[in-house]
Amino acid sequence: YDPRHYSEEVRGSELVVENGNALENVPSAEHDLAYPHRRFAPTIKSHAELLAASRAHYEMMNSRRSCRFFSTAPVPREVIDNIVLTAGTAPSGAHMQPWTFVVVSDPGVKRAIREAAEAEERTNYDSRMSEEWKRDLAPLGTDWQKPFLELAPYLIVVFKQTYGARPDGTRATHYYFEKSVGIATGMLIGAIHAAGLTTLTHTPTPMGFLSFILQRPPNEKPYLLLPVGYPAEAATVPDLKRKALSEIMTVV
Ligand code: IYR
């Protein structure tokens, strides 16, 4: 009998926590004792509150758009710090937190990134991408030019750590780092939008130049590049539609 699994009961629309057993410092067979367990008791919402909160969050997130036109208006660094802290709350395999977010504001570094990205993208659009790919992208209006890499006040370059280092200097395996970094990046995008800023998931390919320009160690591989800032005053976005719930969800 483990009270952690049996202490909750749903009564009507209220979730009542019945058993207040202290769970501090419960040792776990599968883990070492680096993380003693503690009570987890977030505020419990009623069904009406859940409905209101989930709807408000959906509406807020549904107003997010990938925007390719950035204002040069400055953004406080502390806002970027909070956004990155939010991404860092993501769950990760064995809590290895296998991510590094490189925040670039230096104009010279932004220019170097733009030049390298545009050189790769020019080759992509000229010869590496298939005709089908270019047809599929045409409605979005992308091309090899990436002025946002210099205009946006910040670039956040997400790196995945394919392995890490333990405190004693030995190598730490990073489990499911692709999924972990993907989740963290999703949370980063949500945080940028929730803060009131705009971003774009830019995938310069190949991305090796980012490791070189940003001088990252060999265990880190570039994952995604996100310009962050205010949208330009005259910014436009393609008027695309999202799939309906019935197209993305099936209930068993
Ligand atoms: N990496 C290129 C091309 C590109 C590919 C896809 I799939 C997009 O959704 C958008 C762009 C670029 O960043 O322009």
UniProtKB/TrEMBL annotation:
Keyword annotations from UniProtKB, A to Z: Flavoprotein, FMN, Oxidoreductase
Example GO molecular function: oxidoreductase activity
Residue stretches making up the Nitroreductase domain: 63-230
Presence of the UniProt keyword Flavoprotein in the record: yes
Protein's UniProt keywords contain Manganese: no
Source organism, top-level taxon: Eukaryota
Family designation: Belongs to the nitroreductase family.
Protein name per the record: Iodotyrosine dehalogenase 1
